[in-house]
Structures
1.
Amino acid sequence: MCKRDVVIKLICLFILGACGAPPSDATPTPTLINLMLITPTSPPPTPYMAVNARLLANAEQAEAPAIAWVDDALLVTWIGTDDLDVRHFGQWRFGDEWQPPQVLSLLTNRPYQQNLVVTSDKIIYLMWLDALPNFPEPQRVWYAPISENYTINPGALSLTTQEAWDYTAIGASNGGIWVVWQGGLRSEPTLYSQFIDSLGRPRFSNPIIENAHQPTLIADVKGLKWLFWLSDNQLWRGRFGDDGTLTDNLALTDSVMLGRGEFIEDFRVGIAGDAAFAFWQVNRRDGQIISYWAYGGLDGMNWTSPQPHNTTWFIPNQLSSTTMTAIGVAQSETYDLRIYQWLGSYWWAESTGVRIPSQLLRPPTWLYRGTDDLILGWAQPRGEFADLWLWMGE
């Protein structure tokens, strides 16, 4: 099978939401890696320099695992299959001890775009997109709380009743979750805000912005919430209130210009202090991913125009901080996942990072709380599958 066919199969499998199963303990363990549940017929290549890397699973997916911290506990989730169906999987780590991974008892059909949201009550909710198998059921935003013993009560709940194409979510100060989701026509999308209360009950949705897409809801270090979105080829931001309404909407800078056949594969925003950083991943007509970034003040001042970066899948830290860090796949003779730090006027990075055998098909997951408290997750393509890796620094 040629490389192009392999890539096409992986992309198709990702779109369909088909995923691989976590493997069995019988597989030989590569050196320097503490492995659990691996099914491939031969051990995957160990990422160079990834002394603390951990292989979660071998899966038919391109998405990186979802990751969340609660104090010193860590939850990782991914999508896989067992002998019967497509499943959500989860694995906790308490202190330095990893618990056995579990199949999560959740209704699934073709789930994708997992996200973990931590509430102020320190409850982790798993959120994802899925459509029930009964045509013409719409694709909806789903959510479920994941306990420390993997108990899920009351189970998978549907947040939306109409077609949802994208979503973003953040924990609220009262134990609930605010969600902004994109619905309506794909050509004329509308953003809706919707609240999940501290008991896990969904409230009514409220349309807040028309003709908008790529929403990102994020809090700054002071706890203030901001919504970023793209509309009319511009990047916008607004203050997101405790009642789910937007105020002080500002157009910050131009978005990336797209040619015929090109589209935005991924869009994210990170916050460091009083500055915000926007990151675009643009899929060009030839299938090449080009990363762009821009930054400016949360007050809307001094925003730069989007400019390309010399890595692919260049994305920010998911956690707000006083310092901006980002991760990107450096394209040298060998690919490597490299950590970048913003130094006020330029991005600084070590000369090498976590070396990987090939390019990624989707962005990694990056959480940074400090030099000794970080975690990186990614899906490494290998044949018709992908190895799901975690790296927690050296």
Note: The chain is about 5% helix and 50% strand.
2.
Amino acid sequence: MSFTVDQIKAFQPSMVEEASIEQKTKFGTFFGIYVPSILMMFGVIIFLRLGWIVGSAGLYSTLTIITLASVITLITILSMSAAATNIKVGKGGAYYMISRALGIEVGSAIGLPLFLKQSISISFCTVGFAESFHSLYPQFSLPAIGVATLAVLTLLAYVSTNFALKIQMAIFVIIIASLYSLFAGGSEMLENYSYTPVSDSSPSFWGIFAMFFPALTGIESSASLSGDLKNPSRSLPLGTITAVLTAYFVYMAISIFLFQSVSLERLVSDPLVIQHVAKFESLIILGIWGATLSSAIGGLLGAPRTLQALAEDGIVPKVFAKEYGTYREPRIATALTVALALIGVCFGSINVIAPLLTMICLICYAMLNLATGLEDLMANPSWRPTFPLPWIISLTGTVLCVIAMLMINSGAAILALGMVLAIYMALKRQRIHSKWDDIRYGILAFFSRFAIYRLACAVPSSRSWRPHFLVFTGKPSSVSDHILSFSTAITQTKGFLTMASFFAPEQANHEQIAELDHTIKTLLKHHKIEALVTLNQAKTVTSGMKQMIAHYGIGPLTPNTIVCGGTSQEENLINYLEVIRLAHRRGRNVVIVNEEQKSSQHPTSRSPIKGDIHIWWDDHSQRNCELMTVFAYMLRKNPAWRRTRICLVSVVSDESVRVQRLQEFQELIKRNRLKIETSILVSPNPEQERFGIMKSFSMDAAMVFLGMRPPFEGELLEEYATYFQSLPQKSAEFPPVALVMSAEQTNLQEVLQLDPIDGEL
């Protein structure tokens, strides 16, 4: 793994832009992709740990590890080739691609670990150089060599950013020569009959995999070069695939060569065995130094650019985005990078750093594959890569990465994923707004489409009934707290809530409507109220309500309950009653909440409600009673209402009826496992004294449910108006009242048949 010099150009757009003013050089596949990719994969592991891996794992396990790591890397490269040929990859490389696809929160949750990984990789390469140097000059301690090397490389990165660009081909030639020297050596051919680890105390398969995997990482930075290639759609996949296959066969060949040339005991005990086996040791030393130092300096130039990209997007303090000097270097970001690398150099070793790099790389690779796979699965019109890749391949890469993480160390994997989730949640709370579109809307739309079509084909189940409230609020600027608190308490986390408002045609200014819609949604989001908002043009509020009742909804997701306030306008009463009659004929339940009554709580209040929920039994409609019981049950599921009690109240004419009604209530409660209190009152004239008794009994209640009959068939609305107007008049001095009219064809008795795991009401 390494950061190579070509990728520096992608991390330094300002420098490249200044140079391109005079001449814009386009690279081909070999120099633009293949060479830098090979240099990324021929580094510390191949020279300093591959022998140990062969000796510890045995030949067959080593070949399996190399194959599995190559497959994961290859799939990730293909995914990034598709992404890079769909958009121009900007500053930040992998972070840029993830954040522009899955959103700024997900991108940042991966971008911060990615920056940490890039910083640690500097330590990894520096420690690798220090181990090699220490073998020649043992009088110097490893930490001292590492610190001195890091200091020199940092100074070089500050002073001469073009240095790496000039030596890339030289390093490539040196590495090729060092590989020749290796295969030319090893004249003593052994026969290691044991194809298994040298001892039972050897690390596990997945532990050795974690040690090896960094050898094939870092190649994702090639995607940043897509804008500098003559033919990106050809060069990216061809160059990277060829590089991975080359590295795969070279690693396989070296593993077999070492197994046949060196005893397993020596492979395990001698970390510099490749140097000692080679024909020309000096070439191996030059190869180690060239690969590690170029990788380290590439990291010193690359990691600060990732941190700079995070700062420019507002994820970390803006101070890290500041640039200095002729080439506009992010020196503050570089200082933090060096500080993190210094910690790794002082306290780490290759054996400690490699597994940590593996875990972070697997997280990043999983997210990169996920982003590309979802893009192709969504098939958005904006997804038109010149190198298309089937989504199943990318998502397979995601699964392989997750499995590898869990197998290496399930605890560490869960902890790492937890940290990523914690970063995501923290950024979500900050409500950072990105300046670009991502595919999150497309993902939600895709799965919503899937769910809606399946719901449309499914047989409706009464046991799965949920409230779907269509709440009419009249003017957008006047939303009743009472209606809002009632509706949100019942539907929150359990159903759907749509807030519908209307405006006159002369007010149909598109910009004002959009601004008002945004304001309402922002207010609801601020108070953590989940609701849909729809603003509709209508000549009158009642005509708009009729349109919504008749046409609002999609497939099976149509409102089953209409919620609105009463009307105090005499001239508008008949039109209002037409709405109620239409709702009943359309099979919509109706709930009327008196907006003038004081609510038991503010819609966003989480303080416990004081008082009980009273359901007044409707002798004329058992369906009304069943629906009121369902609403009371769902209301009590709301955290603010949990301490309230539900009381089923009835007024009867004599003692014999009271005994019969009590028996009916007890059977209802037992059959449905409802924890409800009952109260049956006796009055000689229950119909005449009903509201007086209600007022006295329910004065301290938090919510009162009353049944309301629909217009009879053939009944004039003027006649029904007398009955309708009497309800709010007689209950005007009550606590908050909800008038309920059941019209839905759902079997509400089955709705009340709660599953035992739900517990009691």
Note: The chain is about 60% helix and 5% strand.
3.
Amino acid sequence: MAINYTILSFPHLMLAIKQSDRKAFDELYGRTWKSLYKQAVNKLNNEDLAKDIIQDIFIDLWTKRESSNIDHIEHYLSRAVKFKVIDQFRKKDFHLKEIEEFVDILEDSEYADSKLLDNELRDIISTLADRLPQKRREIFKLKFEQELSTKEISDLLNISPKTVQNQTLNSISILKNIFQKILFIFFILFFGS
């Protein structure tokens, strides 16, 4: 007789998962991933990173299924998201400190021409902004190149100010992630052996 996983309680799902029941694991994932994802996105403001975190949590859960003794899986998963988010902020702070130090070195360099660096930086940001989806790109350029206010952009594009703010924050988050990767690569190339 086939088991109807949709009616199993969380404790029963966990018992089945401990016995390597993949269908029970899939049911647990299906029931909980959306709320966990929302929790992560609300804290990180980065959809891709939130997906990665949730994926990592479930991979860890499956990997350690036989040895884990989890009484309240919903609380466990929610706490796991919280701790993974904290880890991301720690990593982010670490990388930001490295980047800030690198920028300080460049600025202090006798060879650095600040006007040239500013122009280069603007060109890089503009090129990266061109990779954004059309609506985000348009809002980003109005905000940072034409220096329009949120209200002006909202009126011009006939969208809510909240949408302008959300799109701007999402754009900044995406560009910051890309820019950090580029700076890291540049740092390795510039200072590597």
Note: Residues 113-191 form a domain with the Arc Repressor Mutant, subunit A fold (CATH 1.10.10.10).
